[in-house]
Amino acid sequence: VKLTKGKETYTSEVKLVPDPRSKSTAADRELQHKTVSQLYDMLAQLTYIVDATNDLRDQVKQRQAQASGGDNLKEQLNALAQKLEEFRSILVSVKEGGMITGEKKLREHLGELYGAVNGYSGRPTQSQVESTGVLLKQLDDAGEQFKSITTAQVPPLNTALQGSQQPPLTVTSRDDWDKKQK
Fold first, then answer.
1. Closest CA to 57 of 180, 176, 171, 174
2. pTM over 0.90, yes/no
3. Rounded to the nearest 5°, which phi and psi values hold at 51?
4. Residue 78, class by beta-carbon neighbours within 10 Å (0-12 exposed, 13-18 middle, 19+ buried)?
5. Which residue, of 52, 64, 126, 147, has the fewest CB within 10 Å?
6. To which H or E segment does residue 94 belong?
7. Residue-wise pLDDT tens for the chain (182 aa)?
């Protein structure tokens, strides 16, 4: 540690050690840190997927408002908007009243598990470790579903949008999302 006050500089060492009252071993703390880090990364991935879904849905709604009345384009845009909203509803609570409703989706389960593991400096329970694996599988499935929706439906819609003199839909990449977070 280095502290400067006016022209005076003071230096010293600080040694971080585990709480001596804790009965947790180094292996327990290592597993806790590993689990918390994994859950943190999972929350970031889920946040990216939700943000990218919301952004794409908002673009679709904007294009819907600009689409001319009787063509098939408006119907295709509406179908994608509905699919994106249905997808979002499996990721996050969407009922009116938010957390008060008790509705728990992937985001709520992940957040609760992260808080529980992060709030205790000892070894996570076996149930918490297993739940992390289950939620990781659900998150991976959600990522694949988002990719499937965007690769199957966005390119044909972009072709139709181009024919209607409208800008294409863009899907936010994880790299672009990460840059916005900094």
1. 171
2. no
3. -60, -45
4. middle
5. 126
6. none
7. 999 999 999 999 999 888 888 889 999 999 999 999 999 999 999 999 999 999 999 999 999 988 775 578 889 999 999 999 999 999 998 776 555 666 789 999 999 999 999 999 889 999 999 999 999 999 999 999 999 999 999 999 999 898 888 999 999 999 999 999 98
